[in-house]
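Q: Got a minute? One more chain.
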Amino acid sequence: MRRQDYEFLLDLLREHAGWEFDEEQYFVVDKKISNFIREKGYASVEELITELKIGNRPLISQVVESMAFSDTSFYRDYDVFMRFEKSLLPNLRENNRARKKLRFWSLGCSSGQETYSIAFAIKRKFIGLDNWDINIVGTDISSLAISKAQKGLYNNFEVQTGLNAQMILDFFSLQGDVWQVNEDIAKMVEFRRYNMLDALTFSSKFEVIFCRNVLRYFAAEYQNLILERISNCQNPGGILYLGKNERIPGIEKYYDKLDGYNCAYVCKTKTAEKPRLSVSPQMGVDANQMPKFVRPQILSSPTIKK
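A: Always. Here it is, folded:
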């Protein structure tokens, strides 16, 4: 790929998705765009770039989606999820016992493994779950990924990456040569396409937000913008999970590090009132209602190939 074409693609991705790639990621971009060209039947990168420069918005959307990172698995970073399951969830359950409402958001959910993992953890830890109003939202920029997540179908390799045999049998049923997420789990989750550069309006808040290994791909100014929006989706004391050992400059403006955790943060108070949360591994968060999504203003992509 020519230098000028590479730079054009970088500008395109930055403008429409907020992603920032460096020189070391040239081969990643080159491989992804080569796959896209082959799948769509373009003769060359130059032919694709020419059409992109015309401003073909559906095509731009497809190219952006094709560049999305999809590295995911069930219970990714097993120790992180086990602490979430064994420490955070019992406190959430106890502190919200009266209202019996909890809301979770998985940003950059890819093909849904993280979102379903949250549901698995809740199912394993909560007793009398039928009496609770629990909703888990997964969002991603890739329509292909969202489509796969909504179907809840995974092959043997996918389910065995992060889950033991008992968990597979507990949460899936075998359909031919693939595993289908059980209906009771599917009812706990919903998936939506969402570009993290688009604004969302919420009428209420999330107790826990997962944004793991996502922000590091964004340009610095977009990282700050997204952190601000995420923090506005939580009350003081709400928990944000980043990737394991992920460091995002400026996060301290909106979140405090959660003592004893290397990837969990506590949303700061936005008023003089102190948050009702002890910043320790034994934490609790007040429950709130499900936020209502406003349809994001995203690029139209009627023929997209997560």
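A: Residues 272-306 have pLDDT under 50 and may be disordered.
Q: Perfect, thanks.
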